[in-house]
């Protein structure tokens, strides 16, 4: 139906497909991969807002499936139609928001690892000036804050693109800092996340934010004390851990400890989405500052993540495996995981089978386990 000539029939077909995709990433990816990239691009190029809207969401779902799909989208000219929607005044707000989100999804993957090919392609297609325009001038705060997040993804750990933007377009944090004071709670939280991504593994940007002196610990307390576990996790990661060095009214070490305690505590939540989010954020933090992995180990993250490898939910297993993979590069975590694999038959196989193609795990850990298996050491 999505491929027939009549526009109304195509719209109904596309909306039906997206309804079938449901609300989870795995369901959406299964449908999107069946649809195929060519048809998604055709939706983006259509004159129908409904087709454009579904096309943007489908593109984002495909991009979230990993680096291989992100790079395929770039190679097959999937970025240009998205940038065209940014520029077109006729693009509706809901489709514009979906477009901005899709561009961000193209540039970042598992554990906040950037996809350089996508970032460079987005820059080449002149998306950055359009994102800056939306951030500065658009009336809708949700579009403004999403533009900030996508800009952060485009620049993440890509010094070449950062330099080009500063040379041609210029940039400062004033608008994002203003969004931290917005009446809408969701906008404030998302603005903090954008700042956290800008500062992620980037000492220069952390220093710039610290000099601004406009981010206070008190801004975060409503989220950290919230009954909403999503807000707790986001605040703990985004502001308390990544931005802990830029607050004007707090010390880095206790703020970091508090943030990590919140995230590790959420691993024991009864809500599967909270466990997945906490695991994903811990994976991102495990390859930032040197002291964070051992702090996670001390707080008991290893034991809880190991148990989650046997969850009935594939999203929980995969998120836990990614976090354990990054932690395996730490000597103490490496030792603990090795002992667990020797003591619990099937654990190593469960870990390796749950790791996706973009995950990382220490080659030394794998070699040590294989060596112990070869020697036939008994369980400890």
What does this entry look like structurally?
- The protein is mainly α and 380 residues long.
- The protein folds into two domains: 184 residues, Leucine-rich Repeat Variant (Alpha Horseshoe); 158 residues, Leucine-rich Repeat Variant (Alpha Horseshoe).
- The protein has 24 helices and no strands.
- The protein is globular.
- The chain starts with 6 loop residues before the first helix and ends in a 5-residue tail after the last helix.
Quick structural overview:
This protein has 380 residues and is mainly alpha-helical.
Please outline the helices and strands.
Blueprint: H1 7-21, H2 25-35, H3 37-45, H4 49-63, H5 67-75, H6 79-87, H7 93-107, H8 116-124, H9 127-137, H10 141-155, H11 159-168, H12 174-179, H13 185-199, H14 203-212, H15 221-224, H16 229-242, H17 252-266, H18 272-285, H19 292-298, H20 301-308, H21 314-327, H22 331-343, H23 347-354, H24 363-375
């Amino acid at each position: 139906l999505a491929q027939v000539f009549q526009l109304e029939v195509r719209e109904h077909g596309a909306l039906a497909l997206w309804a079938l995709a449901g609300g989870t990433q795995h369901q959406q990816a299964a449908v999107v991969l069946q649809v195929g990239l060519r048809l998604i691009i055709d939706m983006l190029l259509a004159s129908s807002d409904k087709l454009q809207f579904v096309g943007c969401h489908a593109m984002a779902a495909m991009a979230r499936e990993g680096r291989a799909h992100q790079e395929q989208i770039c190679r097959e000219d999937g970025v240009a139609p998205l940038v065209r929607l940014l520029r077109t005044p006729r693009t509706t707000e809901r489709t514009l928001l979906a477009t901005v989100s899709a561009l961000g999804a193209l540039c970042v993957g598992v554990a906040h690892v950037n996809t350089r090919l996508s970032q460079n392609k987005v820059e080449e297609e002149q998306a950055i000036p359009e994102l800056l325009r939306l951030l500065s001038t658009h009336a809708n705060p949700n579009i403004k804050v999403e533009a900030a997040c996508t800009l952060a993804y485009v620049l993440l750990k890509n010094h070449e693109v950062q330099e080009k933007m500063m040379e041609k377009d210029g940039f400062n944090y004033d608008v994002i800092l203003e969004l931290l004071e917005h009446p809408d709670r969701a906008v404030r939280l998302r603005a903090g996340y954008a700042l956290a991504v800008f500062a992620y593994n980037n000492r220069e940007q952390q220093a710039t934010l610290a000099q601004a002196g406009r981010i206070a610990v008190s801004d975060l307390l409503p989220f950290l004390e919230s009954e909403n576990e999503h807000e707790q996790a986001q605040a703990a990661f985004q502001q308390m851990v990544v931005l802990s060095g830029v607050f004007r009214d707090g010390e880095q070490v206790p703020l970091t400890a508090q943030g990590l305690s919140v995230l590790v505590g959420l691993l024991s939540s009864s809500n599967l989405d909270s466990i997945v989010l906490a695991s994903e954020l811990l994976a991102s933090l495990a390859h930032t500052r040197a002291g964070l992995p051992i702090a996670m180990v001390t707080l008991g993250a290893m034991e809880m993540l190991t148990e989650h490898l046997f969850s009935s939910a594939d999203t929980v297993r995969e998120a836990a495996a990614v976090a354990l993979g990054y932690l395996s590069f730490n000597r103490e975590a490496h030792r603990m995981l090795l002992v667990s694999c020797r003591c619990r038959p099937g654990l190593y196989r469960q870990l390796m089978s749950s790791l996706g193609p973009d995950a990382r795990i220490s080659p030394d850990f794998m070699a040590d386990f294989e060596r112990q298996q070869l020697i036939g050491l008994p369980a400890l």
